[in-house]
Amino acid sequence: MQIPLQSFYTFFVVCRAGSMKEAARQLHVTAGAISQRIRELELRHGQRLFERTRAGVVPTAAGAALYADLLASFQQIETVARRDLPDDTARQLVVSVMPSFASGWLLPRLGDFARRHPAVSLAIDSDARVVDLKTEAVDFAIRHGLGHYPGLEARWLMSPAMIVVGAPGLLRQGPPIRCPADCLAYPLLHDRERQDWRLWLQASGSESPKARRGLSFSDEHMLVRAACEGQGLALVRDIYAAADLQKGTLCKALEGQWPTQFGYYLVGLADSFAASGGRAFVDWIQAEAARSPGV
């Protein structure tokens, strides 16, 4: 018989914490993973083990009985597991980062953070999806936008050089582009989230529902290739288009300096910024960003 120890321990931690979110933080997994383990355990037992409330979760009668059965065993296991840990063991600090930012800027610098803060256990989540910092076991996210994240704190890090590029043939055949709003006369090429054009035009005073239309790509290099093929205009960081600009397969469609609020922000809950490990990471990444304002 296979014993689902991971699910049992997850159930035990959720009962003790009274919250799936807090259990996720303690176990260093996402809230979705916690929910999945509890669902599997409930299916195994054939009945609900928790009642959901606004404040969190409370065990049902069946859940309370199971918790009583597990309590002594898992407390003893935890005591043994903690016995040999050093006093300065820190909780894991989880940071969600877009893959392109992680590989292009953050990764080469992480060794410096590890040397400066050896007691902080740092985990980088480079999933392209947007995490929910209020419900998932993630302390910080590095996001690209205008810095408006309701219910969260945001610290500006840097504003990369964003440029509008298009194939020479497309730009010759189309209407002239003298200001950001003129880009809307062309097909727009997007990344997966379809946010950059909308936010860039909003920052330039040219917000329009047309900013979400057009093809989207999961990879910024594919986005540049589509622009080279004349499929539309791309709004990209200059480093991704540099080689094609030099070869002449792309041209800048517009020149100008754009508002600095359109940039990269470190985002998190107030508690994350206040925690000792969080403060160490915040101070370090802001100092690194100040030394390299572009990406």
Task: Write structural notes for this entry.
With 295 residues, this protein is an alpha/beta fold. It folds into three domains: 5-83, Orthogonal Bundle (Arc Repressor Mutant, subunit A), CATH 1.10.10; 93-159 and 262-291, Periplasmic binding protein-like II (D-Maltodextrin-Binding Protein, domain 2, 3-Layer(aba) Sandwich), CATH 3.40.190.10; 162-252, Periplasmic binding protein-like II (D-Maltodextrin-Binding Protein, domain 2, 3-Layer(aba) Sandwich), CATH 3.40.190. The chain is 43% helix and 17% strand. It has a five-stranded mixed beta sheet with strand order 4-3-5-12-6. Helix 1 crosses helix 2 (20-27), helix 1 crosses helix 3 and helix 1 (5-17) crosses helix 4 (61-83). The longest helix has 23 residues, at 61-83. 28% of the residues are buried. The mean pLDDT is 85.
| Uncertain spans | none
Q: What is the structural class?
A: alpha/beta
Which percent range describes the beta-strand content? 15-25%
Quickly count the domains: 3
CATH class of the largest domain: Alpha Beta
The termini sit apart by: 53 Å
State Rg: 24 Å
Please provide the count of β strands: 12
CATH superfamily of the largest domain: Periplasmic binding protein-like II
What helical percentage do the residues reach?
Answer: 40-55%
Main sheet attributes: strand count, strand direction, barrel closure: 5 strands, mixed
